[in-house]
């Protein structure tokens, strides 16, 4: 085949990819539908020109199109890893983890239900063996969420809903392809009636083997990429190789699922990459993968659609009945998931509420596409699959795909409109009128200043000012008529706007490199939780999300367990350092939000809402300062190192800006600018390195500052440091329960606790202790102790405390003072 002609055909396909997107926007149709239609038209035209006698001039072009090396392996080994890897790199994994239960249930259970539903329905309606029917069920179980997600984004549907659909679809593809591999093996071996339970028993082996392969490959790639921190192109090149190598090793060497390997590799690099790769290199890496995935997604649709005329060759009337069976069974399976399983998960508080209109849209938006066609093509190419099964698999999968694209895809937006999802709510309508009025007032002031600066003609200014004034008066009148916004709704809308501005501020700080890319992932997730909390729960939802951003999570508790039980301090040191940097970044961001409330939100929602939002911000700042102060007290000196690092990074950013301004002004040439930037890059690489946190050394320094342990010798301090165990508690956590047996004494390193006993309450703060009275009096605990803020406690075994008490006069004096404060005779506890 002429290489020039093939190159021309491929270049033309890229032109079609470029034209398809604006065409889809113009026709208001899903992008994938336009690509599929164009691909089918090209394939059908090529077949027509080869078979017609009208002209032979286009035969070489038609032969080049039909002669393209389009095989199932091209889709599975070239395009599919690209799409899956990019999808995992683009995910907000921390937010996905909040919804891992519904995502996993919808993905895995949906695949199994759809496979069983379609498989047994076809087995009943046709003479195909059950193995082939289940194979077809697995093929049509893959969904393409791009259409429904893009429409949800255009109508401002809840982000959490779109995130669940994306996560479900990603794992859905992986699970469906794994099942496809199982049933394909049964069909090729000639097993007519496989044990479904036996097939599912092999399923975990495929999943775990692929996950382990992908994780190891990504860890190795991240390690190599961290060694090339000064070579961005080398890092990006390694990332390009990663998904393909993981896929091939899993499939060919281990016999596991290559799809799962790619997903695991992408998730692992998503988590570890920002901490090992410079921020700009990580941004460029993700942008490159976005482009690659866009091309791969478009080409896979067009090339798969080229095959549709050939896959439908020899279709019979009875085949349409079977296509109808597949359609009904697949829709029924989707209904069971969306209207049965999803409400059940919501009732069990394992999934967010998904309103009925959104579930209907998801049902109708379950389009199938290139992955379904690629799997069907793999069956038709296998010489070990009987011809009759090959033909029906190709026809049924293709017919079902065409139905979803040409029927569901072309009507999806109309269904969205019929459900009312494309219209603003009454609150948003009223808000939009107020926003227009406030914006036009600001614009009028700015235009007035501009006309004065440019000394424009008075007559022109007067005419335009009159027209603008009429529009402004109409907007103000419309806004005044919209009195249907209650204060509660104004507060909710103000909180959503505030959280959105916070998210934008974070992104701006990341671009300036004031905040590291690693911390950006964490605090952006916190900002997203604030937005969603405000949307779903108003003020209380926002406050819950704000408290969560400063609370101690389950991960740090696990790290503490590893440190205290097994002596593994690295995870705890890393997470504590992350928490330091996260709190410093949060404090930086929160200090920039008051101005937004005073200048923007106050003008739209009024003074009362603005004051309330300022109060909420003040509480958040206090919570962050309290948590940060607790860490400062527990690890003296480390916060100072982080703050110095922040100052150095800020200075480097300002220095870079000055060099850029001098170059733009012509004060320095490109050669000088390049030399200066190289020197700055070296200093920035050094400044990006976060100082190491040594927990053991920091604990000794902390104990030395603890008033109760004054006067202890260095050897005693070291023994005490090893004996003390750290315990993190969140606000509201119970530390000591009534009537329990006391075996330990607690020292408050940071935070505060509340003791309740016999109707009285006491509050204790840093440097104080509790639990010693019950221990020394050998009586059961009579007080209930709870944390009132996130707190860090040092826990000492009771016997060690008694020995320390005998050696430390300062500690004995502290016990006497504590007893007097509680109205307890010290003589009952301490000997004279």
Short key terms for the protein model shown above:
Na+/H+ antiporter like fold; 5 domains; four-stranded antiparallel sheet; 75% helix; globular; Cation/H_exchanger_TM; potassium:proton antiporter activity; cell membrane; cNMP-bd_dom
Can you lay out the helices and strands and say which pair or pack?
Layout: H1 3-27, H2 31-51, H3 59-66, H4 72-89, H5 93-98, H6 100-125, H7 130-139, H8 146-154, H9 159-189, H10 196-227, H11 232-254, H12 258-276, H13 279-306, H14 308-311, H15 317-347, H16 356-364, H17 370-381, H18 387-418, H19 426-454, H20 458-481, H21 487-511, H22 517-550, H23 554-566, H24 570-590, H25 593-605, H26 607-634, H27 638-664, H28 670-688, H29 695-705, H30 714-723, E1 725-729, E2 734-736, E3 744-750, E4 753-757, E5 760-764, E6 769-770, H31 772-777, E7 784-787, E8 791-797, H32 798-807, H33 809-822
Antiparallel strand pairs: 1-8, 2-7, 3-6, 3-8, 4-5, 4-7
Helix pairs in contact: 1-2, 2-3, 2-13, 2-18, 4-11, 4-12, 4-13, 4-17, 6-7, 6-9, 6-15, 7-9, 7-18, 8-9, 9-10, 10-11, 10-12, 11-12, 11-13, 13-17, 15-16, 15-18, 17-18, 19-20, 21-22, 21-25, 21-26, 22-24, 22-26, 23-24, 24-26, 25-26, 27-28, 29-30
Describe this structure in words.
The protein contains 33 helices and eight strands. It folds into five domains: 3-66, no CATH class; 72-418, Na+/H+ antiporter like fold, CATH 1.20.1530; 426-481; 487-635, no CATH class; 696-828, Jelly Rolls. 75% of the residues lie in helices and 5% in strands. β4 and β5 form a beta hairpin. It has a four-stranded antiparallel β-sheet. α2 (31-51) packs across α18, α11 (232-254) packs across α13 (279-306) and α21 (487-511) crosses α26 (607-634). The radius of gyration is 33 Å and the shape is globular. It is mainly α and 832 residues long. InterPro entries: Cation/H_exchanger_CPA1, Cation/H_exchanger_TM, cNMP-bd_dom, cNMP-bd_dom_sf, RmlC-like_jellyroll.
């Amino acid at each position: 085949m002429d290489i020039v002609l093939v190159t021309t055909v491929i270049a033309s396909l890229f032109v079609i990819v470029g034209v398809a997107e604006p065409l889809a926007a113009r026709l208001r149709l899903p992008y994938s539908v336009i690509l599929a239609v164009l691909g089918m038209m090209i394939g059908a035209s090529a077949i027509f020109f080869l078979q017609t006698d009208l002209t032979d001039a286009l035969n070489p072009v038609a032969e080049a199109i039909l002669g393209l090396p389009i095989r199932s392996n091209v889709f599975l080994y070239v395009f599919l890893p690209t799409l899956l890897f990019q999808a995992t790199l683009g995910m907000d994994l921390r937010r996905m983890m909040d919804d891992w239960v519904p995502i996993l249930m919808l993905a895995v259970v949906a695949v199994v239900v759809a496979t069983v539903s379609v498989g047994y329905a076809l087995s009943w309606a046709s003479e195909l063996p059950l193995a082939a029917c289940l194979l077809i069920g697995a093929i049509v179980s893959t969904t393409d969420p791009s259409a429904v997600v893009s429409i949800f984004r255009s109508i401002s549907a809840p982000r959490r809903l779109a995130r669940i659909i994306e996560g479900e679809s990603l794992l859905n593809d992986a699970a469906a392809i794994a099942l496809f591999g199982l049933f394909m093996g049964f069909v090729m071996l000639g097993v007519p009636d496989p044990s479904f339970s036996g097939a599912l028993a092999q399923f975990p082996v495929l999943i775990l083997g692929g996950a382990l392969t992908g994780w190891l490959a990504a860890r190795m790639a991240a390690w190599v990429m961290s060694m090339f921190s000064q070579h961005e192109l080398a890092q990006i090149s390694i990332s390009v190789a990663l998904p393909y190598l993981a896929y091939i090793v899993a499939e060919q060497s281990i016999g596991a699922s290559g799809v799962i390997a790619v997903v695991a590799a992408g998730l692992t690099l998503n988590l570890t990459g920002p901490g090992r790769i410079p921020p700009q290199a990580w941004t460029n890496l993700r942008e490159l993968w976005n482009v690659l995935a866009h091309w791969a997604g478009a080409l896979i649709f067009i090339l798969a659609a080229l095959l549709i005329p050939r896959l439908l060759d020899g279709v019979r009337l009875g085949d349409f009945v079977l296509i109808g069976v597949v359609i009904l069974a697949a829709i029924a399976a989707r209904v069971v998931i969306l209207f049965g399983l999803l409400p059940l998960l919501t009732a069990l508080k394992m999934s967010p509420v998904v309103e009925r209109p959104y579930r209907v849209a998801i049902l109708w938006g379950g389009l199938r596409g290139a992955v379904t066609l690629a799997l069907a093509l793999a069956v038709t190419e296998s010489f070990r699959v009987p011809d009759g099964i090959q033909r029906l698999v190709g026809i049924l999968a293709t017919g079902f795909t065409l139905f979803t694209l040409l029927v569901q895809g072309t009507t999806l937006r109309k269904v969205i409109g019929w459900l009312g999802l494309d219209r603003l709510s009454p609150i948003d309508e009223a808000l939009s009128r107020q926003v227009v009025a406030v914006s036009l007032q600001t614009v009028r002031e700015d235009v007035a200043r501009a006309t004065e600066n440019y000394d424009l003609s008075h007559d022109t200014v007067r005419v335009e000012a009159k027209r603008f004034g009429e529009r402004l008066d109409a907007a103000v009148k419309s806004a005044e008529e919209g009195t249907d916004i209650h204060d509660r709704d104004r507060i909710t809308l103000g909180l959503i706007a505030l959280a959105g501005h916070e998210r934008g501020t974070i992104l701006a700080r990341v671009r300036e490199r004031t905040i590291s890319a690693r911390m950006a992932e964490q605090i952006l997730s916190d900002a997203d939780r604030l937005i969603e909390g405000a949307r779903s729960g108003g003020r209380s939802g926002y406050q819950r999300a704000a408290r969560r951003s400063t609370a101690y999570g389950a991960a740090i508790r696990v790290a503490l367990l590893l440190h205290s039980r097994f002596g593994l301090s690295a995870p705890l040191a890393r997470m504590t350092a992350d928490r330091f940097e996260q709190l410093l970044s949060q404090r930086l961001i929160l200090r920039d939000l008051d101005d937004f409330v005073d200048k923007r939100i106050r003008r739209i929602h009024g003074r009362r809402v603005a004051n309330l939002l300022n109060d909420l911000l003040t509480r958040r700042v206090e919570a962050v300062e309290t948590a940060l102060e607790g860490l400062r007290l527990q690890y003296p000196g480390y916060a100072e190192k982080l703050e110095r690092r922040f100052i150095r990074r800020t200075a480097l950013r300002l220095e870079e800006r000055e060099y850029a301004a001098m170059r733009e002004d012509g004060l320095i040439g490109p050669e000088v600018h390049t030399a200066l930037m190289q020197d700055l890059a070296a200093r920035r690489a050094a400044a990006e390195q976060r100082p190491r946190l040594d927990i053991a050394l920091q604990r000794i320094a902390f104990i030395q500052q603890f008033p109760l342990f004054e006067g202890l010798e260095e050897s005693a301090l070291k023994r005490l440091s090893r004996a003390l165990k750290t315990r993190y508690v969140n606000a509201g956590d119970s530390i000591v329960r009534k009537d329990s047996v006391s075996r330990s004494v607690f020292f408050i390193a940071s935070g505060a606790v509340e003791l309740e006993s016999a109707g009285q309450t006491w509050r204790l703060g840093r440097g104080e202790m509790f639990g010693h009275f019950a221990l020394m009096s050998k009586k059961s605990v009579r007080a209930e102790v709870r944390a009132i803020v996130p707190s860090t406690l040092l826990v000492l075994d009771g016997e060690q405390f008694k020995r320390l008490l005998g050696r430390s006069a300062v500690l004995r004096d502290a016990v006497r003072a504590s007893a007097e404060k509680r109205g307890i005779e010290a003589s009952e506890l301490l000997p004279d």
